[in-house]
Fold Fructose-1,6-bisphosphatase, cytosolic.
Amino acid sequence: MDHAAEANRTDLMTITRFVLNEQSKYPESRGDFTILLSNIVLGCKFVCAAVNKAGLAKLIGLAGETNVQGEEQKKLDVLSNDVFVKALISSGRTCILVSEEDEQATFVEPSRRGRYAVVFDPLDGSSNIDCGVSIGTIFGIYMVKDSIEPTLDEVLQPGKNMVAAGYCMYGSSCTFVLSTGAGVNGFTLDPSLGEFILTHPDIKIPKKGNIYSVNEGNAKNWDGPTAKYVERCKFPKDGSSPKSLRYVGSMVADVHRTLLYGGIFLYPADKKSPNGKLRVLYEVFPMSFLLEQAGGQAFTGKQRALDLVPNEIHERSPIFLGSYEDVEEVKALYAAEDKK
Ligand SMILES: O=P(O)(O)OC[C@H]1O[C@](O)(COP(=O)(O)O)[C@@H](O)[C@@H]1O
Ligand SMILES: [Mg+2]
Ligand SMILES: [Mg+2]
């Protein structure tokens, strides 16, 4: 192997340097975003370490509280939430925080306020914590108009207005995936260095995939278009081979695989949950932002997911996201249904 040529082709890039490079493209930038992101990265490293030793450090199991969603909180849900609230406030760059684990939004006290609002799911895939299956953290960032007297309107707005979104997956390796509106990049944590290194530059999702990802246990309650679409995945009429089913039950893990391999992830509405299960602000929006930035698309069953305007911070929405052509097929089925 021609090491020199190889060395000239690749770049040993940490996430800090990557974001500083991005920042240098905006001469007027004060570095606020870079500081905010470095605290989010620190929070992810902290949670990654806690997840890795969860079984040893008695961090498995329930915390004994219930969150606003009526879900029993896991110890790691509570710990991760505390870590991110601290990391975000101590960045001095945020004014509003919306967390899955907190009923109300947190308004940062004036002396520590900055001009970003952060919506986040501190620990996603909670049902998989105790069995050590991949889980993650999801976040979205808005630049607020008025950091002096911020109101909830700063976050109750379309996802397309976010300035950045990302997730960190705590799996066989710890992977941080980020978009600041100019493509999607993935970084892998080198535990020996404690550094996130650029390993997945400029991620582009394949136009079409051969994987579908859904909790088929809800099938009896699905609406017509969803049932028809999944039927087609299993019994294609166009002579193509059936899609493979993959479902981890952690949105971060199912979306990460979809982003890299292509295909579609869906959590549709059904008779039991007419708005689906996943939350608009800190699950649907960040993942839809990343998918669109990678060349895929995200659809609610009615509209482009990023055009949604939520009315309240824990609002849910059905979601179909993934490869462009696969989601296009779902959109056609809903359009046909609407015509009936
Ligand atoms: O068990 P179900 O109904 O398939 O739901 C799985 C979905 O619920 C979630 O676990 C909800 O997220 P939280 O774990 O953050 O509450 C998603 O990660 C996942 O996609
Ligand atoms: Mg979640
Ligand atoms: Mg969660």
